[in-house]
Design brief:
Elements lengths: L1 H31 L8 E2 L5 E4 L10 E4 L4 E5 L2 E3 L13 E4 L3 E4 L12 E3 L6 E2 L12 E4 L5 E2 L12 E4 L6 E2 L6 E4 L4 E5 L11 E2 L11 E3 L6 E2 L12 E3 L6 E2 L12 E3 L6 E2 L20 E2 L12 E3 L6 E2 L12 E5 L4 E2 L12 E5 L2 H6 L1 E2 L12 E4 L2 E4 L10 E2 L2 E4 L5 E2 L10 E2 L4 E2 L6 E3 L7 E3 L8 E3 L1 E2 L12 E3 L13 E4 L7 E6 L6 E6 L22 E4 L2 E5 L4 E7 L6 E3 L3 E4 L2 E8 L11 E4 L5 E2 L12 E4 L6 E2 L12 E3 L5 H8 L7
Parallel strand pairs: 4-6, 5-7, 6-8, 7-9, 9-11, 10-12, 15-16, 16-18, 17-19, 19-21, 20-22, 22-23, 24-26, 25-27, 26-28, 27-29, 28-30, 47-50, 48-51, 50-52, 51-53, 52-54, 53-55
Antiparallel strand pairs: 1-2, 2-3, 3-4, 13-14, 14-15, 31-33, 32-36, 33-34, 34-35, 37-40, 38-39, 39-41, 42-43, 43-44, 45-46, 46-47, 49-50
């Protein structure tokens, strides 16, 4: 354990040097300038003021701090870097006035009390680390003329919830109210907060984009093809991530220290997992895709909830500290391709007791396993060669071939003739096939269920032979036999009128034998005189509650003049238009109501509600996820049922009569529309 403690101590010291050293240098620079650049004065009212211009000789950027913690910066030009870095001033709000064009390097670094910042349109540049470590900052709006944002400008802003970009900015945007900062040209998401989403169309997520933020879940669209290093590092509240299908690499430290992260889907096309990619995460289970052939150092180190892991067959090395300190790891599956298990790869995995190796004993002995992985050498650890199950033979029939019994590894799917796979692996590419016997049609049986064809006016009855092996009847007429010479009567068809009847004379109907084509005839009665013909009944209206379908739309009669819209046959139609009125059985009815669930789950992009609709029923358009435009023509709408629009896309556009806009906003509130 002493060696272990030394290693941990060195690691902590190294990491501390990497993370803390720059900050210490910054503090030193600031302290030399009394934490705030420029001459400071104290007014009688408690207001503090000073200069912070970039030009030390003729600085024209000045600042004042009132008793409420509001820092106001005025003047023109640039604010000098480090001006307020780690300041002892109690700054809660920053207001930068018009005229300021640049905020210098690390100007507000570690001003943890800052909650709000207002930036002017004149601002063009935020230098490197401008707001680094401002953990209290919740929102930020990038002005329309700001075209340059330096590295780590908002690094360690752990309280950041959302980012917006003013309209007209030529470099950045926050499209679709995503609450994130996006580089418009490269479609790269540069910065996100707790409430940010990754919009469709973004192709990359930059390094540190969400690092140290309070996000709880993340679904990344398939348009994203690259996620850079540290992108989600130390997101300690992040519980689940859905990765896009086109990601081929998880870069180093991407999800390091995501201590609440329980699940993550790794796409099938993933090939590499970088150094420390999931170090100290809360992963309980993870499936590494078969395409992965490289896993980096410390990739899953200190994943203390991880209980088992399966390494895909293309991986040749378990690298340095890859699963170090996975306290609850009990079993691992290693492919036969493994050649090296590096230093401390499984160190401190005290619960590990089962190693399933998909190879032979000789292959296992040939692996270069560093002696620091002492858990692999303990007597309590079982080394198992393949997870073998017996696959019983399949029976041969007259028509179906069978297979001999064999053994199969449930992990790597290799097949073997025997269970002695550790020392005598008789591998096979496929089970040994036993050909089908083939039917032997020799047995006769005249039972009704073996009848092939009944006796006719030309032929006696035919019966199928039976197979002497399986007792199944034949299916081909070549495998039948006749019984006696008994024949039956003609088999007449349904007949055809060959001479039409009139009011003056009978007609003729002719029948034909389906076997021998013989014919016979019968008389057809004369037609009645015109005065004797039955007169058509007068057309009547539809009954209340009666349903009728017109042009794919179904309606139910409400009363003598109104119907209720019930639904559509084609739920995949792109456009659905509810008419104002519909002609049913020769009469027009007003469409005044949409029934409950009448359009639930349809895939239409556009839905138009007619001008006579007064009621929209419960859950009428629930889960219409593809809906982009909802147009309500009616000015008579009085009632909207519960959850009528639940599940409709938040991006859906709602169009209503202009004079009804205010009324309908109240009527539709809480029904599922984001309007």
């Amino acid at each position: 354990m002493k060696g272990k403690e030394v290693r941990l101590g060195l690691f902590v010291l190294v990491m501390a040097a990497i993370v803390i050293a720059p900050v210490k240098n910054t503090y030193a620079a600031v302290s030399e300038n009394t934490a705030v650049y420029g001459v400071q004065t104290q007014a009688d009212d408690g207001t503090t003021s000073g200069t912070c211009g970039a030009d030390e000789d003729g600085a024209n950027a000045t600042w004042t701090l009132d008793e409420n913690g509001v820092l106001t910066i005025s003047g023109t030009g640039a604010i000098k870097g480090f001006s307020f870095s780690s300041s002892s001033l109690s700054i809660k709000e920053v207001v930068v006035k018009e005229g300021i064009t640049e905020i210098g390097r690390r100007t507000f670094q570690n001003c943890a009390q800052i909650q709000t910042v207002t930036l002017p349109e004149s601002l063009t540049t935020l230098e490197e680390g401008t707001f680094l470590g401002c953990s209290g900052l919740k929102k930020i709006t990038i002005p329309k003329n700001c075209e340059t944002i330096g590295n780590h400008a908002f690094y360690y802003c752990s309280g950041l919830e959302e980012i917006s970009v003013a309209d007209g900015n030529p470099v950045f945007d926050s499209r679709g109210d995503c609450k994130a900062l996006i580089d418009s040209q490269s479609n790269t998401l540069l910065l996100g907060g707790k409430n940010s989403v990754v919009p469709d169309g973004v192709t990359a997520i930059a390094e540190y984009a969400f690092a140290y933020t309070g996000i709880t879940e993340m679904t990344i669209p398939d348009s994203v093809i690259r996620i850079d290093e540290y992108a989600f590092c130390a997101c300690k509240q992040l519980k689940s991530v859905v990765l896009p299908a086109n990601i081929t690499s998880i870069e180093k430290d991407t999800f390091r220290d995501c201590s609440s992260l329980e699940t993550v889907n790794l796409p099938e096309g993933l090939k590499t997992i970088g150094n420390a990619a999931f170090e100290s995460s809360g992963l309980q289970a993870v499936t590494i895709p078969a395409a992965v052939d490289s896993i980096g150092n410390v990739a899953f180190s200190s994943c203390k909830s991880l209980t088992e892991i399966v390494i895909p067959k293309g991986v040749t090395q378990i690298p340095y500290r890859c699963f170090d300190e996975c306290d609850n790891l009990t079993s691992i599956v290693l492919p036969g391709s493994i050649e090296v298990i590096d230093v401390y790869a499984f160190d401190a995995c005290y619960q590990l007791d089962t190693v399933l190796f998909c190879g032979t004993q000789a292959q296992w002995n040939a692996i270069n396993i560093d002696k620091s992985n002492d858990q692999l050498f303990k007597s309590t650890t079982t080394i198992q060669y393949h997870d073998i199950v017996k696959v019983d033979e399949t029976l041969v029939t007259c028509t179906e071939s069978g297979t001999e019994a064999y053994y199969k590894c449930r992990i790597c799917n290799k097949m073997f003739r025997t269970a002695e796979v550790a020392t005598d692996p008789q591998e096979i590419s496929e089970p040994v096939v036993i050909p089908a016997f083939g039917h032997q049609f020799t047995v006769k049986n005249i039972a009704a269920n073996y009848l092939a064809s009944e006796a006719t006016c030309k032929e006696p009855a035919h019966y199928y032979y039976l197979c002497e092996i399986c007792n199944e009847p034949a299916k081909d007429m070549k495998d039948t036999y006749t019984v006696g010479s008994v024949k039956t009567e003609h088999s007449w068809d349904s007949g055809k009128i060959t001479t039409e009847p009139t009011t003056q004379a009978e007609g003729v109907k002719t029948y034909t034998c389906t076997i021998c084509h013989a014919t016979k005839t019968e008389a057809v009665a004369k037609l009645p005189a015109e005065s004797e013909k039955p007169q058509p009944e007068e057309q009547t209206g539809l009954k209340k509650g009666q349903k009728i379908t017109v042009k794919g739309y179904t309606y139910k009669v409400k009363n003598a003049s109104e119907v209720i819209f019930m639904g559509v046959k084609n739920k995949k139609a792109k456009t659905i238009t509810i008419p104002a009125k519909v002609k049913l059985n020769g009469k027009y009815y007003k469409v005044t109501e949409l029934a409950a669930k009448s359009l639930k789950g349809v895939q239409a992009k556009t839905i138009v509600i007619g001008s006579q609709v007064k009621v929209i029923g419960k859950s009428a358009m629930q889960n219409c996820k593809k809906l982009k435009t909802l147009k309500i023509k009616s000015t008579k709408l009085k009632k909207v049922g519960k959850n009528a629009f639940r599940g409709v896309s938040k991006k859906a556009k709602v169009i209503v009569p202009k004079k009804m806009k205010s009324t309908y906003k109240k009527l539709l509130k809480g029904k599922g529309l984001n309007w």
